């Protein structure tokens, strides 16, 4: 007789759990780590602003914008020439760089043939220029504008240099805004018999204006905070008058702040902090305007 | 500031204005110096009669002869001469004694016209950098370990500037890369839309703070805290590379975070879904799938961060010092390439001088380095776009 062995099926084990454990310590720890990373930036910003406000408090009054700088009497020193200088320089920077930047963006997006080598070169160049250190622009302004073209260290030189500095930023931001306008709008306009320029002027640009404005404001706020190139362009000299024209000598807020930081008397450090508060207030206002513009007018196509 | 530095460290020695000493006699001790005729203690009289040499020196003003013909300039100089005593006291300088006063008020024809007009110097069309390398060989420039370009016996070895730049960049990246990357992973993989919308403006504000402000913070907040927290054997200098590097790191975080987040958001969801289907948790998906897929974009962000750190000027000009020392000690004061350009360029540099050309030579080196970095970064970004699209 053959011995028949029936292998018994293994006893059914506990039903297999498909889901992993609810609580995974690795996961939670990792999440916490990431949150800590984010917290570093936020806490730093909080400490920075608190510290500066505390330092600035004793000097945050009308002397700051009514008086001119003084190395002799810190209690009477103010930043009026620097505030007016900033306004002058930034106004002309906007005047020089916004039209140029926006037109360059229109050319690159609407007219340029990306297959051509020179257009590719321009594009590569702009990307590269956007990342060149700002002090290099200062050297350029010093060698080329101030000395070679004999413009001297004036408001004109400063605003031309700053325009060159933020031009790539304006171009890149405007291009993105123009690119976000869908192709169908252009095609519809062209199909109705509009010329290319009419299409750009009446359809593309109005739709892209919020994006361009946001980008431009952010670019200009970068120019306002920029000090390094202007160090080389004569803004450090002691200036006790407001600029009166393009040929005028000038100083700007960041440089005035730098100047006060380098003074060794303690009172000047409070003054520097107070100057920083004004500068940050201007920048925050501009940033808020940019964010508001973006949220209010940006369209989803 | 120097007062705190000297008072706070054992054996501390500092050189600064006499008036600061007068304000802090409780904390400091003035030292006598020997100017060749025995030791002299600093005092108002010693400074006035010139025996406190070589550390006390007179302060001159030089109006040009042409400018003095203008009425307002003449009036100003006369005012200055009349009121010099009050002005000097206000600025906490030591006023002249009576004898010197008479010389000051004597007709100043003899000491006129020191600074001739610089206008009209024809600017050479040859780039100043070329001029520089005609006098200083490339090997001397890139291989030398002494940088004393602004001294009377100059040495032009750029290595101290280069090493300081690299050291500060490394410190900055040690902060910015992990923190920036962590923030990017959270924003791209974990945060929902509402959190992202709230957090992004904060990062934008952090990115928009002017670098002068960061410099001020590094000098007057971070350095004193480092002095408190570090053990007494490791006290940092009054200006030091560590504080500058740490603060610069925070400055770069937003850039690395937002560029890496762009790269991570571009990773197709299909890749994530596959990993989830195989039973991975969110952490594994983020670290093993998303980060490797977005790697070229992340590396591009880091390279751009390096280039930004190398080119940053104001933080190092304020917080890391103006002495070019060839050292890898982050607690020391040191000068970077950008710091040198800022220091040498902030005065009125005559075109013909060799310092002027030095600025261009260091600037050219800086430009070449950042240019190479930017090109690498642009290449990498293109690569990840090709992979993802």
UniProtKB/TrEMBL annotation, chain A:
Location of the protein in the cell: Cell membrane
GO biological processes: phosphate ion transmembrane transport
One term under GO cellular component: plasma membrane
Stretches assigned to coiled coil: none
Main location class: membrane
UniProt xrefs under InterPro entries: MetI-like, MetI-like_sf, Phosphate_PstA
Domain ABC transmembrane type-1: 83-289
Membrane topology: Multi-pass membrane protein
Transmembrane segment boundaries: 32-54, 82-108, 129-149, 155-173, 223-241, 268-293
Keyword presence, Transport: yes
Keywords: Cell membrane, Membrane, Transmembrane, Transmembrane helix, Transport
Claim: Hydrolase is one of the keywords in the record: no
GO molecular function: phosphate transmembrane transporter activity
NCBIfam families (UniProt xref): 3a0107s02c
Family under the similarity heading: Belongs to the binding-protein-dependent transport system permease family. CysTW subfamily.
Biological role: Part of the binding-protein-dependent transport system for phosphate; probably responsible for the translocation of the substrate across the membrane.
Protein name, entry field: Phosphate transport system permease protein PstA
Species: Streptomyces regalis
């Amino acid at each position: 007789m053959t011995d028949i062995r029936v292998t018994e099926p293994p006893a059914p084990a506990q039903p297999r759990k498909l889901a992993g454990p609810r609580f995974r310590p690795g996961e939670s720890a990792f999440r916490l780590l990431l949150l800590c990373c984010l917290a570093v930036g936020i806490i730093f910003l909080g400490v920075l602003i608190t510290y500066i406000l505390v330092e600035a408090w004793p000097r945050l009054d009308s002397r700051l914008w009514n008086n001119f700088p003084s190395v002799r009497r810190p209690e009477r020193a103010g930043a009026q020439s620097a505030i007016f200088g900033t306004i002058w320089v930034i106004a002309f920077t906007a005047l020089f760089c916004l039209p140029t930047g926006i037109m360059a963006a229109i050319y690159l997006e609407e007219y340029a043939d990306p297959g051509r080598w020179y257009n590719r070169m321009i594009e590569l160049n702009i990307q590269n220029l956007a990342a060149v250190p700002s002090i290099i622009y200062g050297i350029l302004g010093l060698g080329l504008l101030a000395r070679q073209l004999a413009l001297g260290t004036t408001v004109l030189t400063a605003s031309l240099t700053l325009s060159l500095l933020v031009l790539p930023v304006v171009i890149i931001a405007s291009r993105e805004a123009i690119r976000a306008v869908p192709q169908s709008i252009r095609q519809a306009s062209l199909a109705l018999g509009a010329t290319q320029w009419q299409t750009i002027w009446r359809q593309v640009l109005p739709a892209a204006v919020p994006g361009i404005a946001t980008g431009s404001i952010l670019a200009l706020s970068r120019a306002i905070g920029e000090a390094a190139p202007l160090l080389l362009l004569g803004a450090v000299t002691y200036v006790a008058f407001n600029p009166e024209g393009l040929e005028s000598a000038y100083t700007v807020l960041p440089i005035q702040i730098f100047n006060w930081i380098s003074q060794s008397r303690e009172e000047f450090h409070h003054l520097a902090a107070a100057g920083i508060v004004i500068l940050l207030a201007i920048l925050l206002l501009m940033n808020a305007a940019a964010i508001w513009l973006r949220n209010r007018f940006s369209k989803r196509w | 500031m120097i007062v705190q530095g000297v008072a706070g460290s054992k054996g501390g020695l500092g050189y600064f204005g006499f008036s600061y000493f007068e304000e802090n006699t409780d904390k400091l001790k003035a030292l006598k110096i020997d100017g060749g005729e025995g030791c002299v203690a600093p005092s108002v009289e010693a400074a006035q009669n010139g025996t406190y040499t070589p550390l006390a020196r007179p302060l001159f003003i030089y109006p040009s002869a042409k400018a003095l013909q203008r009425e307002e300039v003449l009036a100003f100089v006369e005012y200055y001469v009349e009121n010099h005593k009050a002005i000097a006291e206000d600025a906490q300088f030591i006023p002249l004694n009576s004898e010197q006063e008479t010389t000051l008020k004597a007709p100043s024809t003899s000491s006129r016209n020191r600074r001739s007009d610089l206008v009209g110097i024809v600017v050479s069309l040859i780039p100043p950098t070329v001029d520089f390398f005609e006098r200083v060989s490339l090997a001397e420039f890139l291989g030398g370990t002494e940088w004393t370009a602004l001294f009377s016996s100059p040495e032009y070895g750029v290595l101290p500037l280069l090493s300081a730049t690299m050291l500060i960049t490394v410190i900055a990246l040690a902060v910015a890369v992990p923190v920036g990357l962590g923030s990017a992973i959270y924003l791209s993989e974990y945060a929902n839309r509402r959190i992202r919308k709230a957090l992004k403006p904060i990062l934008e504000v952090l990115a928009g703070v002017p670098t002068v402000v960061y410099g001020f913070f590094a000098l007057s907040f971070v350095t004193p805290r480092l002095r408190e927290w570090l053990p007494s054997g490791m006290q940092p200098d009054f200006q030091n590379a560590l504080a500058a590097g740490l603060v610069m790191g925070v400055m770069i975080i937003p850039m690395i975070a937002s560029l890496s987040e762009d790269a991570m958001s571009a990773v197709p969801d299909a890749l994530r879904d596959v990993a989830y289907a195989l039973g991975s948790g969110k952490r594994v998906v983020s670290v093993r799938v998303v980060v490797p897929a977005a790697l070229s974009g992340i590396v591009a962000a880091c390279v751009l961060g390096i280039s930004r750190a190398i080119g940053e000027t104001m933080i190092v000009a304020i917080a890391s010092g103006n002495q070019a020392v060839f050292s890898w000690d982050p607690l020391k004061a040191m000068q970077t390439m950008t710091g040198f350009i800022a220091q040498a360029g902030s005065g009125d540099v005559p075109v013909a001088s060799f310092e002027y050309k030095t600025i261009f030579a260091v600037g050219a080196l800086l430009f070449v380095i950042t240019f190479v970095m930017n090109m690498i970064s642009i290449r990498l970004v293109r690569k990840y776009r090709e992979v993802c699209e």
